[in-house]
Structure formats: structure tokens, C-alpha cells
Design brief:
CATH superfamily of the largest domain: Formiminotetrahydrofolate cyclodeaminase monomer, up-and-down helical bundle
Number of domains: 3
CATH architecture of the largest domain: Up-down Bundle
Structural class: alpha+beta
Radius of gyration: 29 Å
CATH class of the largest domain: Mainly Alpha
CATH topology of the largest domain: Four Helix Bundle (Hemerythrin (Met), subunit A)
Number of helices: 18
Oligomer: single chain
Shape: globular
Strand content: 5-15%
Helix content: 40-55%
Distance between the termini: 58 Å
């Protein structure tokens, strides 16, 4: 069964005293099964965003300890900062990451709140998907009045707390505990010191927009129900305010992108640029607070390449670099993708040891006395080189002078090539991992009948996977041929031989992986599976030989041999 993962992103009301920040964040690492991903303090906001991830029960325990520690070390009576807040741990959202529903995540939020109320005697509200009533779903409503208005708020019957005592705690304040989708906290920098002008931009872009004022009196207008009439902003699923950051000497548009599938980071950036320019200001850059998904930057990189009519078929690191430079994410501080992208933070340092090697180290490791990496990993690497060569020709062709109207055509082929290359690089390490799983299974004890049965089952599972991996290498490498053929026929003439070399690599990858499939099928117990897999593998091998020869013949015709 796959492990459920949730993320927790508590915001504490301390961003200046590093000793206090580290002491509070440090309790997260005292819980087994939780990984602390990021600590992002802000001087002007006097607020720190802490991010950690793990199994649900462990995350709830870590969040509980963090709230307890913040109660010990933060005194809200002394707090001042630019960001709205009403508690020492101001908000504590839980976010489903993998193999868990929003409803299940909300149940864990309720469990956390109940513990905070009963065991710590602290008060708070549930918000977003954990809200117990519709009027408490929106965090802005829950936190309205902030810390300074909390005592009066608690006296109102409609704002009785969801957990803990319904009395004002002047030292701690209150905490909002929620369950929500992944939220990106994103600030855009302006070349102004006017908060009023920055807020005008924020009102232009945020979903809530601005109130409609009576042209005669200048006062906000209301409808027949007494509700304020609003002029919606440009962007859905976006909350925004303008503020002045003394630390930087500029104003920012501070945004929460509550659903980046509706409004992406780059769409938010472009909208602020457009509004700022219309109001006589200029965007100088932006910053991510906390972490964001890799896809957000990959999509941004492609967006800005598309605007330049350049090929989108570049590697992941280049796409991220384009995104960072296009949105000025390094304007105020260096932007380190390894520290800001959630997938990179979750990666194990040794997740892809072979692919991370230099060419020399990979060759030396292959030549060593170790049986792995061997022919399977080398075959996968040959396949990745085939895809890389086809991608290179596509990218060169997309930039050829006089072919400007064809850039998108070659870009689509380059994107396909990048996808094939990335899959085959993944299979380089996966093949060695599959081989090691067989060795681990063989080494299991055989001291009684039950142990022998468990060992045999483990060997069968590992062997089946050791068949599937090279078979995937065969399938993926075969997909390189259409790319290589098209680039030889339609791409840059000077690179025709590169496409042909790619075909040689692709055929070698298919055949090398075919040998591994055959060897690993030899003693596998499931003969029906073996028969079907070998028949399919044979067909792929025959297709690879034929398509390689077709490309060689095309090259001969092209160069007149």
C-alpha cells in the first residue's frame, strides 16, 4: 500500500529572532517520519513560513509540538509586522500531497485542533476545507480584526471558537487550523514606495477586486441586501494586498495563489506587470515565499519561451532558469531551485546515483568489478543519447534563420525528445535498482519453510520487475525512431548525420535491453507471462532493426552515397 503524505505549512508570528525561529522549527525534527523542508523568515512581516511533510499522524504530532513551542516562546502582546495575523502560530494548514483525499486531510486538521484545545488550552478556528461552517471557510474572514480585535471578536456569538476556551489569551492569541489545496505565496516587487498605489494594483488583479464607490459621494455602494457591491479583479483564485517592505525599501504585491491550476504563477506575474505599467509603475522582480511545485516553474519557463517563439524542448534546468530570469525571482535574494522546489526537497540525495555521475565516473563504474551497472543501464543510456540527438536537431532547426514560421513544429518534436530522454535516464538507475532487488531477495534467509516461501516470493517479484524495466527501455527507445527520421528528413541538413547516429544508438538500446529481457525471463516461473513478454519484445527488436535501416538508407540518399 502506498504511503499517504501530507504537507504542513504553519506561519508563526516571529521573523526576526533566529534563535526563537530555529527553536520552534526544530521541534518538527524530533518526530520520526517527518521531513523539515523549509524555514522562510521575513523581517518586515515579522513572520516565518515553516514547511514540513510526512505521514499524516506524524505531521499532526509535529504540528502539535510546533504550536506548543510557539506558545512558549512568542508573546503576541509585543508583536508588530506588516502581515495580517492573530496568533503566535497564526495559521497551520494541512495539504494533501499523495494518496490521501481532502476529506481525510480535513479529519486530521480536526484531530490537531481538538488536541490543541484540550491538551494545550489554546483556542482557534477551522478554515478552508476543515471549516465547520461556510462563513469560516475563508481565512480572511476568520482572521478579520486581527490580534488587536480578537478579544472583541470572541465576545460575539457568531465567532465562538471551534476548539479550546472561548476566552482571550493575550500572549498566544488564536490559531487557524485548516485543510487546503497547495497554495503558493508569491510577492511581486514594484518600483514605488506608495502603499496606496500598490494596493490599487492588488485590487486590479485579486479575485475579490475592489468595492464600487458612489461617483457622487465616494462612499462604497451596497445592493438591496445591504451587501457591498464589488468590481471583480482580473485573476481567479488569487488573494492580494499591497504593502511597503522597509527591509527592501519598496512596495510589493503580496499574493496567495490558492489554485495554480486556475491562475498560474506566471499569469499572476504578467497581470501585475500589466496593471503596474498602466498605473505608471514598473515591476522589478518577484519572490516565492516558502516552496512551490516544480510544475509551476516548468510551465512558466515554457510560457516565456513561447512568447519569444523559441523551442520549448529544453531540459528541466534550463526551463527553470528561464522562469527565474523572466520573473526576476532572484531580484531580492539568490533563488536556489534545490531549496525552493518541493520535489527537489523531497528527493533523496542518492535517488539517481548513476545519472548524477560524470561520463568518466559512469564509464569507470561500469568497468569495475561490480556487476552493476551493466548492459541494462548502458542500454538505457544509449537510448537517452538517441533521444538527445533527435532533440538537438529539432532545437537547432527551430532556430534556423528563415524558418521562423516553423519554430513551433520543431519545438513540439523537441519536447517529445526531451520526454523520451528523461524517461530513459530514469531507467538507467532503475535497471541497476532492479538487479540489486534480485540480489537482495536471493540473500534472504532460508532457515525454515516459511522463510523459504517468503524468499521465493521476493525473488519472483524482483525478477518480474527486472523483466519489466528493460522491456520499458525497449518500448521507449523504439519511440525515438519517428523523431530521428523526421529530423533527418525535415530538420537542419547539416545535422542529418546526427539523426542517423541517434538511430544507431536507439537500435543498440533496443537490442541490448532485449538481451536483458531474454536472460531475466529464462528462469521465471510464470511461463504465460514470459511467453507474452518475449513475443512482444521480439516484435519491438524487429521493428528497431527495420527502422534503423530505413534511416541509414535515407541518410545515404540525402548525402548522395
Amino acid at each position: 500500500m502506498k504511503q499517504a503524505l501530507i504537507e504542513c505549512v504553519p506561519n508563526i508570528s516571529e521573523g526576526r529572532n533566529r534563535q526563537i525561529i530555529d527553536a520552534i522549527a526544530g521541534v518538527v525534527e524530533t518526530v520520526d517520519g517527518v521531513k523539515l523542508l523549509d524555514i522562510d523568515p521575513g523581517q518586515a512581516t515579522n513572520r516565518t513560513v515553516i514547511t514540513f511533510v510526512g505521514a499524516p499522524e506524524a505531521v499532526v504530532e509535529a504540528a502539535f509540538r510546533l504550536i506548543k513551542k510557539s506558545n512558549e516562546l512568542i508573546d503576541m502582546r509585543k508583536h508588530q509586522g506588516e502581515h495580517p495575523r492573530f496568533g503566535a502560530t497564526d495559521v497551520c494548514p494541512l495539504i494533501p500531497i499523495a494518496h490521501i483525499s481532502m476529506e481525510e486531510t480535513a479529519a486530521f486538521a480536526h484531530k490537531l485542533g481538538e488536541r490543541v484545545g484540550k491538551e494545550l488550552g489554546l483556542s482557534g478556528y477551522f478554515y478552508e476545507s476543515a471549516a465547520k461552517s461556510p462563513q469560516r471557510k475563508n481565512l480572511a474572514s476568520v482572521r478579520a480584526g486581527e490580534y488587536e480585535g480578537l478579544e472583541q471578536k470572541l465576545a460575539k456569538p457568531e465567532w465562538q471558537v471551534d476548539f479550546g476556551p472561548n476566552t482571550f489569551n493575550p500572549k498566544f492569541g488564536a490559531v487557524a487550523i485548516g485543510a487546503r489545496d497547495f497554495l503558493v505565496a508569491y510577492n511581486v516587487n514594484l518600483n514605488t514606495t506608495s502603499t496606496r498605489r500598490a494596493n490599487a494594483v492588488a485590487f486590479d488583479v485579486r479575485e475579490a477586486g475592489r468595492t464600487q464607490n458612489d461617483p457622487k459621494t465616494g462612499k462604497p455602494m451596497k445592493d438591496e441586501k445591504g451587501e457591498l457591491i464589488r468590481i471583480p479583479g482580473k485573476l481567479k483564485a488569487v488573494k492580494a494586498i499591497g504593502w511597503y517592505i522597509e527591509e527592501y525599501g519598496i512596495c510589493q504585491i503580496s499574493m496567495n495563489l490558492t489554485n495554480i491550476n486556475i491562475t498560474s504563477v506566471h499569469e499572476a506575474f504578467d497581470a501585475v506587470c500589466e496593471s503596474a505599467q498602466a498605473r505608471g509603475m514598473r515591476v522589478t522582480g518577484s519572490e516565492i515565499v516558502g516552496l512551490l511545485p516544480k510544475k509551476a516553474l516548468l510551465d512558466a519557463g515554457k510560457h516565456y519561451l513561447r512568447k519569444q517563439e523559441r523551442s520549448l524542448g529544453v531540459d528541466e534546468a534550463e526551463l527553470i532558469k528561464i522562469a527565474v530570469k523572466s520573473m526576476g525571482l532572484d531580484d531580492l535574494a539568490p533563488f536556489d531551485p534545490q531549496q525552493k522546489i518541493i520535489e527537489y526537497k523531497l528527493q533523496s540525495p542518492n535517488e539517481s546515483p548513476l545519472v548524477a555521475m560524470s561520463l568518466t565516473d559512469f564509464a569507470n563504474q561500469t568497468a569495475s568489478e561490480s556487476p552493476a551497472p551493466g548492459g541494462g543501464s548502458v542500454s538505457a543510456y544509449l537510448g537517452s543519447l538517441a533521444a538527445a540527438l533527435g532533440t538537438m536537431v529539432a532545437n537547432l532547426s527551430s532556430h534556423k534563420r528563415g524558418w521562423d514560421e516553423r519554430w513551433e513544429y520543431f519545438s513540439q518534436w523537441a519536447e517529445k525528445g526531451q520526454s523520451l530522454k528523461d524517461e530513459l535516464l530514469h531507467l538507467v538507475d532503475e535497471d541497476t535498482r532492479a538487479f540489486n532487488e534480485i540480489l537482495n531477495a536471493i540473500r534472504l534467509p532460508k532457515n525454515d519453510a516459511q522463510a523459504v516461501q517468503a524468499r521465493n516470493e521476493a525473488i519472483n517479484v524482483a525478477t518480474r520487475y527486472a523483466i519489466e524495466v528493460p522491456f520499458r527501455v525497449m518500448q521507449t527507445s523504439l519511440q525515438c525512431f519517428p523523431l530521428l527520421k523526421e529530423m533527418l528528413q525535415s530538420g537542419l541538413a547539416a545535422s542529418a548525420s546526427d539523426a542517423a547516429v541517434g538511430a544507431l544508438c536507439a537500435r543498440a538500446a533496443v537490442m541490448g535491453a532485449y538481451f536483458n529481457v531474454q536472460i531475466n525471463c529464462k528462469d521465471f516461473e510464470d511461463k504465460v507471462f514470459v511467453q507474452e513478454k518475449l513475443a512482444l519484445a521480439k516484435t519491438i527488436a524487429e521493428q528497431a532493426r527495420a527502422q534503423e535501416q530505413e534511416i541509414i538508407d535515407l541518410l545515404s540518399q540525402k548525402i548522395g552515397l
